[in-house]
Amino acid sequence: MRKTGSIFLFLCFLLCAVGYTAEGSGDLLEQAKKFFSPLPSDMATAQNPITPAKVRLGKILFYECRISVDGTVSCSKCHPFSLYATDGLRKSIGNNCRPNPRKAPTLFNAAAQLSAPWIGNRKDVEDQAKQALVGPPSFGMPSYESVEKKLIELGYSPLFKDAFPNDGKPVSADNFAKAVGAFERTLVTPAPLDDFLKGEKTALTEAEQKGLKLFIDTGCVACHSGAYIGGQAYRKFGIFEPYWKYTKSDKIDDGRYAVTKDEADKYIFKVPVLRNVAKVPPYFHDGSVDKLQDVVVIMAKIQLGKDLDRLTVDNIVTFLDSLTGKIPEDLIKVPLLP
Amino acid sequence: MRKTGSIFLFLCFLLCAVGYTAEGSGDLLEQAKKFFSPLPSDMATAQNPITPAKVRLGKILFYECRISVDGTVSCSKCHPFSLYATDGLRKSIGNNCRPNPRKAPTLFNAAAQLSAPWIGNRKDVEDQAKQALVGPPSFGMPSYESVEKKLIELGYSPLFKDAFPNDGKPVSADNFAKAVGAFERTLVTPAPLDDFLKGEKTALTEAEQKGLKLFIDTGCVACHSGAYIGGQAYRKFGIFEPYWKYTKSDKIDDGRYAVTKDEADKYIFKVPVLRNVAKVPPYFHDGSVDKLQDVVVIMAKIQLGKDLDRLTVDNIVTFLDSLTGKIPEDLIKVPLLP
């Protein structure tokens, strides 16, 4: 009798637990849907529609290093897909060992942000791609004409003609930018969160759901929301305390002030996209923090004025880990250059 | 009657031509088989047998830049597959912008050579991979121990355990070398010549066959023969005249003398593999010549004492073009790093 009672109690407990979890997921799903949405299949725009020929060319150009002043810089140099489209460095290294002012952000799920890259000094990925060609710490070419000349010498004319059939002068820096941009607009990496948001409640483990709930309740979603979990707004880095008090920054970066010269824009940066965040250390605009755990502690402290306990931090990191997406097979194939 | 006669004559001509070509190919095939053999399916050795786990690890390590002193150097930096496993530079650039002494040779079809890389200062690809880790102009790490520590930190232990299941200390520089070497020993790129050598006479076009015949008859096969069309011997570069008289070399390279300190080894280099030669400019150990046409002229002049006419040069280049191989699908997939 006692044994039967125990089994009965255990079954009751089990049913309650299952009921709780299911209902919990249901609530959480509704709550999550208020802040997040699933990734789209691409990030195309009306200004730069995606065509197969343009994406094919863009992918090839992404790996083309011979159009940099010393022959060593391509888009893939600072955004290798082996490291989730960033390079693992605090600050990327361009031609002739020139350091870039900030860390290379991942290009996965990046093209739909309000601007590029950290301080919005580039309008979009196309603008970034074009200006990189003549940027002193990136490709470092003397002029757009010199890039165009080199592209023609390398045999790119037929590929540009295919990609821009109605253009009288297909080989141009503008079309380089459009092709690379079109390719970048295909770089989406769906993660379990997307399945969860579409209603598949088991797509996230219980621990990940717990982390998601804490991510929402702690207030991280105030900035990190939407399909990309960031990327849609500028925010001051260090609201409660200066960021450099907690990071290992080698210097203070004025942030968006460099673009606007408006005092109010000091220490303002674009909110980074958190998709694949576990795979793209070191963190922040200056790569000054190595571990995601530390990032969560610092962000809660200086953005939200909260001291998180270790367990909460670990739970949030578990959720952030689950934002690591699947890289489509086709994306990881290296193209052969002409 | 006149028309019938013409047709008859034309048919006779056609039959003779076909007969000639077929017999010509037949002769050429027999002749070619004396000098060349088809590529094997891999370049495994008894010292470093290929296993799937070892190749998988080797491929990942091939892209690993975080084990270099400044985080920018991986095997793929100087041997990107987008440029047929070389980098398009006269001299490769290693960590902190340090120039390497010579051009990066392609790694495709390279692992079966008598030594590595240009002057045989490395025993084989495994030796090259290992020494590169601490080589000042390549990875530049302070010691093998520092590499091993970093590999463990990065989470490589399970991958090394899989690849070297019977090794008490799987994460080691020696096993790094074996894994990368095993991967490199899979880098074979079969070309139309291989089908031709196996008896498929139409695998090479008539123009390519003409070039092949000229390549043989001119005497290029004295050095460039075997499955790899080179890579099996050391030879003086500049037998009839000094090489620097014809190249745009910035300095005179003593060649193998640097290894042996034997005066007889001055200006002696390993005969390079010619597979994919059309895809791997600039040419020679110092990348001092840009065009394959010029290379053929120079080689005939200074190695064979011959002045080739333009048509012969073009025909030989047509043959060399046909040595561009097919890169297996699997090879061009970039692995995601741990």
Walk me through this protein's architecture.
- Two copies of one chain form a homodimer.
- Chain A is mainly alpha-helical.
- Chain A has two domains: 28-39 and 191-321, Cytochrome Bc1 Complex, Chain D, domain 2, CATH 1.10.760.10; 52-188, Cytochrome Bc1 Complex, Chain D, domain 2.
- Chain A is built from twelve helices and two strands.
- Chain A has helices at 2-35, 52-62, 75-78, 125-134, 144-153, 157-163, 173-184, 192-197, 206-218, 257-260, 292-304, 310-321; strands spanning 234-236, 268-270.
- In chain A, strands 1-2 form a two-stranded antiparallel sheet.
- In chain A, helix 2 (52-62) runs antiparallel to helix 6 (157-163).
- Chain A is globular.
- Chain A starts with a helix and ends in a 17-residue tail after the last helix.
- The interface between A and B is medium-sized, with 27 and 27 residues.
Report a brief summary of the structure.
2 copies of one chain form a homodimer. Chain A has helices at 2-35, 52-62, 75-78, 125-134, 144-153, 157-163, 173-184, 192-197, 206-218, 257-260, 292-304, 310-321; strands at residues 234-236, 268-270. Chain A folds into 2 domains: 28-39 and 191-321, Cytochrome Bc1 Complex, Chain D, domain 2, CATH 1.10.760.10; 52-188, Cytochrome c-like domain (Cytochrome Bc1 Complex, Chain D, domain 2).
